[in-house]
């Protein structure tokens, strides 16, 4: 089955860009997602990319997809302290079933 | 964006009792809902896929008699943890698969339910 991996921790200064990386194994994944989870809360969809795209920009968020290497990244420009959270990448199959990575804890320091 | 609600947000119960958690899609219809479990500092683990009007599909290792799922309508799925024990204490999150506001067909997550079994 699908295996999704991501780095566990990222520390970044306020105002800098954050880059969170993710790899997946199933080349037939149709959509790839980035979700954000704040403490004690559910998941908030940040952005997604369809597998036939290689880049998607949404305001301060940029998603890059290298389908050949099965590598996905999320860049958050001008990161704010309020954006400290856990960020999950997820890959979906054609049935909509999601496989999540372990989550990257992002800590934004003033 | 689409809104998915869960009720209750927190529940504390005694060992041996059953607990029902509701998941509702508020502004769209969801033919498929998913139930996840999340342990502290861990990722989400898919428990089951719930399809409206049919039996849920459980992931390997998830006891279907313990975690009863009912998807009664296109906007409501319920998870009942039967005869709960302390090891069932966890954060339960549902998601609804649908299209809302012109966005692509995707999964929208509820806020989660924190279950504590004493």
Give the topology.
The complex is a heterodimer of chains A (110) and B (118).
Chain A: E1 4-6, E2 9-13, E3 18-24, E4 31-37, E5 43-50, E6 55-58, E7 61-66, E8 71-76, E9 85-92, E10 98-100, E11 104-109
Parallel strand pairs in A: 2-11
Antiparallel strand pairs in A: 1-3, 3-8, 4-5, 4-9, 6-7, 7-8, 9-10, 9-11
Chain B: E1 4-7, E2 10-13, E3 19-25, E4 32-38, E5 44-51, E6 57-58, E7 67-73, E8 76-81, E9 90-98, E10 106-109, E11 113-117
Parallel strand pairs in B: 2-11
Antiparallel strand pairs in B: 1-3, 3-8, 4-5, 4-9, 5-6, 7-8, 9-10, 9-11
Describe the structure.
- The complex is a heterodimer of chains A (110) and B (118).
- In chain A, strands 2, 4, 5, 9, 10 and 11 form a six-stranded mixed sheet that branches. A five-stranded antiparallel sheet of chain A has the order 1-3-8-7-6, with no helix packed on it.
- The mean pLDDT of chain A is 92.
- The relative contact order of chain A is 0.34.
- By secondary structure, chain A is mainly β.
- Chain A is built from no helices and eleven strands.
- The termini of chain A are far apart.
- Helix content of chain A is 0%, strand content 57%.
- Chain A has strands spanning 4-6, 9-13, 18-24, 31-37, 43-50, 55-58, 61-66, 71-76, 85-92, 98-100, 104-109.
- The radius of gyration of chain A is 13 Å and the shape is globular.
- By secondary structure, chain B is an all-beta fold.
- Chain B is 0% helix and 53% strand.
- Chain B contains no helices and eleven strands.
- Chain B has strands at 4-7, 10-13, 19-25, 32-38, 44-51, 57-58, 67-73, 76-81, 90-98, 106-109, 113-117.
- In chain B, strands 2, 4, 5, 6, 9, 10 and 11 form a seven-stranded mixed sheet that branches. Chain B has a four-stranded antiparallel sheet with strand order 1-3-8-7, with no helix packed on it.
- In chain B, strand 5 and strand 6 form a beta hairpin.
- Chain A binds chain B through residues 31, 33, 35, 40-45, 48, 50, 88, 92, 95-103, and chain B through 1, 6, 32, 34, 42-44, 46, 49, 93, 95, 97, 104-112, 114.
């Amino acid at each position: 089955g699908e295996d999704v991996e991501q780095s566990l921790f990222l520390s970044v200064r306020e105002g800098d860009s954050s880059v969170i990386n993710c790899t997946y194994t199933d080349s037939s994944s149709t959509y790839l997602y980035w979700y954000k989870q704040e403490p004690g809360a559910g998941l908030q969809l940040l952005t997604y990319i369809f597998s036939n795209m290689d880049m998607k920009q949404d305001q301060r968020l940029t998603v890059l997809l290298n389908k050949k290497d099965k590598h996905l990244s999320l860049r958050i420009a001008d990161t704010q302290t309020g954006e400290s959270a856990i960020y999950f990448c997820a890959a979906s199959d054609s049935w909509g079933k999601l496989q999540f990575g372990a989550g990257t804890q992002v800590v934004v320091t003033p | 964006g689409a809104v998915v609600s869960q009720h209750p947000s927190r529940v504390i119960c005694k060992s041996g009792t059953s607990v029902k958690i509701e998941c509702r899609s508020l502004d769209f219809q969801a033919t498929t809902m998913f139930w996840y479990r999340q342990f502290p500092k861990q990722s989400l683990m898919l428990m089951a896929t719930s399809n409206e009007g049919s039996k849920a599909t459980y992931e390997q290792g998830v006891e279907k008699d313990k975690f009863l799922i009912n998807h009664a309508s296109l906007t409501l799925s319920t998870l009942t943890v039967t005869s709960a024990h302390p090891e069932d204490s966890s954060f339960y999150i549902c998601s609804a698969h649908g299209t809302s506001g012109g966005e692509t067909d995707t999964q929208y997550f509820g806020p989660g339910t924190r279950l504590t079994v004493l």
